[in-house]
Amino acid sequence: MNPKIDFYFNKTTTWQEEIKKLRAIVLDCGLNEDLKWGVPCYSFQKNNIVLIHVFKDYCALLFFKGVLLNDDQGILVQQTKNVQAGRQIRFNGVREITEMKAILKAYIYEAIEVEKAGLKVDMKKTAEFAMPEEFQKRLTKAPALKAAFSALTPGRQRAYLLYFSQAKQSKTRESRIEKYEKQILSGKGLDDA
Fold it and tell me: Which CATH class is domain 3-116?
């Protein structure tokens, strides 16, 4: 237990009892506790295994390489269609967590074994993501933008491609591209300040 993270569990939240119970279960599996992305994150030999996060309608354990776990119970959830590796187990109450304690530990121990074995998730390559026609035209017209986009990390490239593609109308896609052009030229990702 990392005392620097206690504040997170002592905040008044809708899911306070539930996340405290999840914390106890995860720590009982011998993982190291830290705060990453503003939430409790648990690792084994500096490799992220699972994190606890809360949403309006549920709280969850997120397994970083959940796609590699053998989901015998059928409880792992893919948050969105674009999430490639991570999988959640969602909860709506302390009783549910208590009843699932042994199952949760089994999933956590399996996730640790995945790390020990050095297993990797075959991530979809950036080139496999749809390139909106509007963005392709803009890259063709602006070689500096094309070079800057190519220099971004694959994750940043994917984030832009997904964001631009999500717009249903061409006008909206063009507006998004225009809005983020300077940020791309600065070498920054979608959410970078």
Answer: alpha beta
